[in-house]
Amino acid sequence: MKVVKFGGSSLASGEQLKKVFQIVVSDPERKIVVVSAPGKRFSDDIKVTDLLIDCAEKVLAGEEIESEFATIIERYASIAKELEISLDIIDTISHDLKALLNGNKEKPDRFLDAIKASGEDNNAKLIAAYFQHRGVLAQYVSPKEAGLIVSDEPGNAQVLPESYDNLYKLRDREGIIVFPGFFGHNKNGDVLTFSRSGSDITGSILANGVKADLYENFTDVDAVYSVNPTIVQNPKEISELTYREMRELSYAGFSVFHDEALIPAFRAGIPVNVKNTNNPTAPGTRIVNERANTNGPVIGIASDKGFCSIYISKYLMNREIGFGRRLLQILEDFGLTYEHVPSGIDDVTVILRQNQMDKEIEAAITKRIITELHADKVIIEHNLVLIMVVGEGMRHNVGTTARAAKALANAGVNIEMINQGSSEVSMMFGVKEAQEKRAVQALYNEFFVAVPV
Amino acid sequence: MKVVKFGGSSLASGEQLKKVFQIVVSDPERKIVVVSAPGKRFSDDIKVTDLLIDCAEKVLAGEEIESEFATIIERYASIAKELEISLDIIDTISHDLKALLNGNKEKPDRFLDAIKASGEDNNAKLIAAYFQHRGVLAQYVSPKEAGLIVSDEPGNAQVLPESYDNLYKLRDREGIIVFPGFFGHNKNGDVLTFSRSGSDITGSILANGVKADLYENFTDVDAVYSVNPTIVQNPKEISELTYREMRELSYAGFSVFHDEALIPAFRAGIPVNVKNTNNPTAPGTRIVNERANTNGPVIGIASDKGFCSIYISKYLMNREIGFGRRLLQILEDFGLTYEHVPSGIDDVTVILRQNQMDKEIEAAITKRIITELHADKVIIEHNLVLIMVVGEGMRHNVGTTARAAKALANAGVNIEMINQGSSEVSMMFGVKEAQEKRAVQALYNEFFVAVPV
Question: What would be one Pfam family of this protein (chains A, B) (predicted)?
């Protein structure tokens, strides 16, 4: 049995839904279809979810929403018309959304969650109707009915463990199940949404619940690329990568989808196949627990901007018990998360995302480090890029670090930081933002172009 | 004005003292001579300080010390005889030591400090007597008389700031001052010793106090070597290195003398010249604030054994505020100091000296990390070596890292850890103990043999 999830761009129009239908019915193992809300049809289009958020916020502000409401319903209606299915379903959707908008607004975040979730929920109803219209045995199943129970955290709900046993029973249903992504219900029956990439999370939970053989995640690219295609032209596609590689790569801004969404599937050992709705015969990228090493040591290179470093030096710091712990306590007091803490003999550097900082926070932190920890020097530097070089093949592969460092040196890139030691499947380089492209290109050339096949 | 310090091996015999005399009188700038206790004359010899400790411990245990006492006095007497000076000084020394041994034993650590310090103190008296015997204007000056005031910490006294103004007045004395190293007095007049390399500390304090132009530290090697000569044969000597390089190198077991001893001289910006009593015309090694870069990027390579690593992994660790701080708190609760904390996305490694750990502590730490931090995995590995590659020339020198990593890779050395990012003048590699020699040799060949001159 396969769980198949389609993203918003795969569901944005009737034409797209026809492709989705063909994909699902072409393989009888594709039993459970998880759907997002309709996404963009063209680059300036607005996603239904964004229309819904706008609508909910206006309602909360006491404003008129007549035209916004009409726009949302029109999106569903245009799909239904394109597919030539009965417009009864549009009445159902309109009625449902109106009731939600008239619902309880005492807790605005829950109200917002309910409105947002309706995008997926109503789309699942529409798609089920379309499948039925095409003469296939298909049914809409709601998360409530299926027993997808979540924690009481609006916008960041976590699946509760009892859900999995409930969801296992979906195996017994006949025909195709069309299931809305993005939300579940708490024990009181209130709607609560997951965090971003919520439909990916739902698919992953369902795959775990029904013990699927495969979780297929349909999106709009043929595969996961080995490097950001806006930096390197026509990069190599990755046919197979491990969960761990995916996690390391997605850390540095490399994401077809949000890696945490995969946790439920990962825990159940279910492979994930990222595929393209617009080119379903392409093999896509498989994300697995273990893989054969068929390429060189490196499978992917990712980079992420927007880091800063806090350098702290103090003579004899090295002898001082508790220095590091007290330093991290100061950061914690400001609610800052840090990424890495490379250290020298009498100095230490904290690498963190600079969007957490502003001039005031920087001044306050500097002051506390100097007055409380008696540091000799505190220097904050901005605009660092972290580059991750990832691959299971790097495990005990003598020389990968040297190759990477040499490639950077030959390209004239100055390495501000190297972090290697903890993870066996990655190494990280810190460089100045201005050198990002040159650095990534040099690493790509070293490991993907120069590798003898 | 120069402060000149001589170590124990330079003062072990009359023959050595003749060299010392020649060195001092050959330069009229050499005004202040700091001396250790007599050291070893041959490899199986016993240092006077060790004889004194043995003697003091026996006294505290209520044992007879007649023969031990005689052995100590005989050491001074044999030097005096060799130098053909009046044995009056031996009477003085004998009388002084007897009085100390009969002194107050209520606080054994202070008693021990007083006995230990007598080794330097009496040697200074003997040496002053010899200088006078040679017709030179010279005087013994005691730390008490000079106002070298220290904190009340037996075996680990710290100089108090008011000492420096007191010591400045030594400039006004005529002739050569012979000053005992290793100790000062607290405000009550009790003797307290410095930590190891205590005479180096005294010399450094005096150099600062009198605002010397140079602090000459005479020992028994021609220079500081660029690498451990027991690993690499006939290594290059270092003619000049900065305080910072010295500190980074000495961290990894690389020490002609204890780098912390240099702090007072360093704070006053006074250069240090390490020279050889047995070959005083050799230029030795100068330790300075800044140096011209006359060699390649690397000035020295040091390595130190006996480290272990605690690897901790936990899925989504990266999102958890306070994880690192709580981990360091656990180590602190066990009184452990750590060296470095390289981190991956969902894992972190703590590098620390393994002599702080035993099976029980390891088990207790592992348990706390698992139960309190809910780590997925904790793995402790032993017998790591840290290798420091140091040089001011590495600052923004693109490619040094690559050269080092490539040299290690070509030698078949697996790099367990790289720590670069904080210090600009060093990089650190962690390797398995069995690969230490091969790794150090490979780095030496890369930076010292292969460098085009």
Answer: AA_kinase
